[in-house]
Amino acid sequence: MPATYSLPGPLPRVYSVDLNHTDSVQLAQLLHQANPRRRPQFLINCQHLTCLQTQGVSYLVSQLLLTKHAGADILLYNVNAVLGSALRLLHLQQVFQVLPPII
Q1: pTM score, whole prediction
Q2: 15-35 burial: b if 16+ Cβ within 10 Å, else e
Q3: Which of 8, 24, 49, 87 has its CA at 20 to 30 Å from residue 15's CA atom?
């Protein structure tokens, strides 16, 4: 039986999520259960993602799609040229919002 969680008070809508240390799918499910009428937005810094170096773009994209399906919108920033090209080739710039680089 899955564990149940309760979160106190109103939830902010934008969350900075470190994919190196967070199960984004589980977090999206938790936040969706807490407030199904409000989709959280996950702000993800792509600059230092370990999974890009160890498992590649396809793994990252599959995790992002699963996270979106679990109830979160995805905002990506510091997207390098390779990842940006892959997102464009796969027409995923309509699915994930790519923000300009943050200096």
Answers
A1: 0.82
A2: bebebeeeebbebbbbbbeee
A3: 87
